[in-house]
Amino acid sequence: MIDSQTEIWYPSADQIADANITRLMPKVGASTYEDFLKYSIEQPELYWKAILEFCDVQWTKPYEHFADYSQGREFARWFVGGELNWTETIFKWARDPKWANRPAVVAEDEAGAVTSLSYSELHERVRAFAAGLEKLGLQRGDRVGYLMEPGVEAVVTMIAISYMGAVVMPLFSGFGVDPIVARLSACQAKALIMTSGFVRRGKRLDTLQTALQAQAAHPVDLFILKLAPGEAVPPGAIDWSSIAVRPAPDSRSTPMQTHEPVMVFFTSGTTGKPKGTVHTHGGFPLKVLHDGIINFDIKPGDMFFWPADMGWVAGALIITATMMRGATMLCYSGAPDFPNWSRMAQLIERHKVTHFGTAPTMIRGFSANAQMATAGDLSSVRLMITGGEVIDPEHFAWHARHFGRGIAPLINFSGGTEVSSGLVGSVIIKPIPPGGFNSSCPGIDVDVCDAQGRSIVNEVGELVIREPFVGMTRSFWNDDERYLDTYWRTIDGIWVHGDLALRNEKGEFFLRGRSDDTLKLAGKRVGPAEIENVLMELDGVIECAAIGVDDAAKGQLLVVFVIAGGAAADRPGFTDEVAHYAEQRLGRALRPARVHIVTEMPKTRTAKIMRRVLRGAYCGLPPGDLSSLDNPSSLEVIRQAARQ
């Protein structure tokens, strides 16, 4: 329940007793969560043995050694000598007569049409699709570009690629030709599987021309298109629906060594050259499964819904965490506020969702449309998740009270593509502070340190990891030096993640934004979230972003962008109100030099504000990689603000 004075959530006795962690603790000899966390860091080999047994991970060949550091700590290998294919842990549920007919995936499109597959049906679909890919010549280790909207077909495709030993390379659904070609070229992809279009806000968005242009610019051997009903197959393409063939009766997934790649995620870089984050069969799936049981408390039979683009790490994370645990994944391919803001609540009610994940930006949208957003029966929700960016305490508490009814915990969760899943994330058996994280993720030695690598408490510093950990990227694709420069050389021998954070004496963490978004005002390093969280309290502020702008006299000036709602949008002097409120709450040194009321800000498809892009547009700097930008029109909005 939530304390009405502090907004801290406290677990009930039943929630603690029923938690996965509570069942795990005796297996490692821990009587308290603090002992459990300490054991996971100090005894990683024994800890992971307990996790793998608890989750009944399926091995083709048991591993011989937990870790191999012979190539350097930065290039650690895990579960050495073992062989597995992570999809077999999904399909153990299909081979269980008691579970085979339970739903593995349920998909609803924007028009309300629902399709589903049981675990048994998913198994057969994956086997057939994988057999078809092999018949076409796809081989173990080949890279496959993958751009599809959330749905049954996307789930079958991703799992099938892994099943037959190829490497998935997810592509964001909003990518144009250039970023697709850059990624296909970077990893020498052999195949591209794309949808020809999808529906958003009642209109079909065509991606066929993008696919055709990408294939023309960088031809791949297998060009596979998921087409709309009645749509003609373009010359040189293969219809997705024709791929599946009857597999051999005794066919199984391809056994993979634990260090072999399973996925390559290309993330945007400020130089315009994307970074190919490499994950392995013995890393990504096992780390995601771990966080699914520890942080998300997923149990067999749960209904898990986290609307996310299949081209980001979240798409693969949801499939992996849900189905390796025998739960059901709910997919939705439409806009979250279409035809109105009740859509998410209606989906929760209709499908009896137990786990609901959403980004802070969507939560802010819910709160601004509270009556409509909560127009559905939310009583099935047992646990909620938010992540992807910093969330202010006020909106965190609002979501916990309204969608969680003050009963279901809201798990704040943060990590990233390079670490597979989470670094900091709340657990269900401890109090949860609004906007914060009540723990680091077990199994990872997470710390907050100063520029010299010294641990600090109650001060903002760098979020770091002091030891290699299961789930960290093996490297960047064909670019070890860039990988080392990015994570291991800022502070020698320590993984510097790029987030600003504060850790208190209770072991709770609070993120303060990205290090590369850091402002230096009056000689003090300030994370943008520290400013934005305060301004979000001001009536009329719907969304805001803070950036630092170079100034010859002062080093940097604070510039704030605000999307205003209601009467505030037209109220004379509202910019002065914002500046005064910041000064009143944060001090004179943090009073914005300029406040701009804007109609939109640069965002990704997952609604993260792209501060780097915002700052570049405002300051007239080179834009860098814009492949993740969902609303290019925002750039001119920001440029106009700069000219005011």
Please give a structural write-up:
This protein is an alpha/beta fold. The chain has 3 domains: 13-93 and 263-445, 3-Layer(aba) Sandwich (Rossmann fold), CATH 3.40.50; 119-257, Rossmann fold (3-Layer(aba) Sandwich), CATH 3.40.50; 517-643, 2-Layer Sandwich (GMP Synthetase, Chain A, domain 3), CATH 3.30.300. 30% of the residues lie in helices and 23% in strands. The chain is built from 20 helices and 30 strands. An 8-stranded mixed sheet has the order 5-4-17-16-18-19-20-21, sandwiched between helices. It has a 5-stranded parallel sheet with strand order 7-6-8-11-12, with helices on both faces. It has a 4-stranded antiparallel sheet with strand order 22-23-24-25. Helix 18 links the parallel strand 29 (555-564) and strand 30. The protein is globular, with a radius of gyration of 24 Å. It starts with 12 loop residues before the first helix and ends with a helix.
